[in-house]
Amino acid sequence: MIPFLDLLAVEPHAVAEGDGGVVGEILRTFKVDWPFFISQCVSFLIVAVLLKKFAFGPIQNMLEQRKSRIAEGEEKLKRIEQQLAESEATTAAAIAKANEEATRLIQEARDSAAALSESKAQEAVAQAQSILAKAEAAAKAEREQIAAELKKEFGRLVTATTAQVTGKVLSDDDMRRINDEALAKVEA
């Protein structure tokens, strides 16, 4: 392979005369004209610099900006996904806590209702027993009153009957004695 510097080291008049060897032969074959070749190289360098500055530079800047925006978007997406996962976990924890609280409240309500129901049932039983006791006491008092009235009436009837049968007026002691004897026979 021929070094590039050796290519440039060949003098133009040597190529024209045919003394350049292999390099000279190549230059003659491709008809390289040095002033024209140098101007083309300078033109190429100018176009390359202009393209780099006004075409490739802005395009590369735009691509870098897009690349950075895409990276930022992906980073934001990861943060959003992480926040969403945290939010879902927080929501699940809040729902679990609310369910536990609701279960506890329901159990407390059931216990309270059972206690209230038991209390009301005991209260109703106590009231019923109180009513029964009062009714029994009232019935007993009424029976005693009726029995007393019956004894009194029975004693009056026996005394009246005895007075009519005997035809005499009985004294208080006689009436009491007859009443006591009649009541003792009836009670036995």
TrEMBL record:
Q: Species lineage, top-down?
A: Bacteria, Pseudomonadati, Verrucomicrobiota, Verrucomicrobiia, Verrucomicrobiales
Query: Does the keyword Oxidoreductase belong to this entry?
Result: no
This chain belongs to which protein, by name?
ATP synthase subunit b
Concerning HAMAP family, the annotation shows: ATP_synth_b_bprime
Task: Keyword check for tRNA processing, yes or no.
Answer: no
Q: Which Pfam families match?
A: ATP-synt_B
- Do you know which InterPro entries this protein is assigned to? ATP_synth_b/b'su_bac/chlpt (IPR002146), ATP_synth_F0_bsu_bac (IPR005864), ATP_synthase_B_chain (IPR050059)
Which terms does the record give in the GO molecular function aspect? proton-transporting ATP synthase activity, rotational mechanism; proton-transporting ATPase activity, rotational mechanism
Q: Which UniProt keywords apply?
A: ATP synthesis, Cell membrane, CF(0), Coiled coil, Hydrogen ion transport, Ion transport, Membrane, Transmembrane, Transmembrane helix, Transport
Any one of the GO CC terms: endomembrane system
Which residues lie in coiled coils?
Answer: 63-152
Membrane topology term reads: Single-pass membrane protein
Subcellular location per the Swiss-Prot or TrEMBL entry:
Cell membrane; Endomembrane system
Q: What does this protein do?
A: F(1)F(0) ATP synthase produces ATP from ADP in the presence of a proton or sodium gradient. F-type ATPases consist of two structural domains, F(1) containing the extramembraneous catalytic core and F(0) containing the membrane proton channel, linked together by a central stalk and a peripheral stalk. During catalysis, ATP synthesis in the catalytic domain of F(1) is coupled via a rotary mechanism of the central stalk subunits to proton translocation.
Q: Which family does it belong to?
A: Belongs to the ATPase B chain family.
Assembly and oligomerization: F-type ATPases have 2 components, F(1) - the catalytic core - and F(0) - the membrane proton channel. F(1) has five subunits: alpha(3), beta(3), gamma(1), delta(1), epsilon(1). F(0) has four main subunits: a(1), b(2) and c(10-14). The alpha and beta chains form an alternating ring which encloses part of the gamma chain. F(1) is attached to F(0) by a central stalk formed by the gamma and epsilon chains, while a peripheral stalk is formed by the delta and b chains. F-type ATPases have 2 components, F(1) - the catalytic core - and F(0) - the membrane proton channel. F(1) has five subunits: alpha(3), beta(3), gamma(1), delta(1), epsilon(1). F(0) has three main subunits: a(1), b(2) and c(10-14). The alpha and beta chains form an alternating ring which encloses part of the gamma chain. F(1) is attached to F(0) by a central stalk formed by the gamma and epsilon chains, while a peripheral stalk is formed by the delta and b chains.
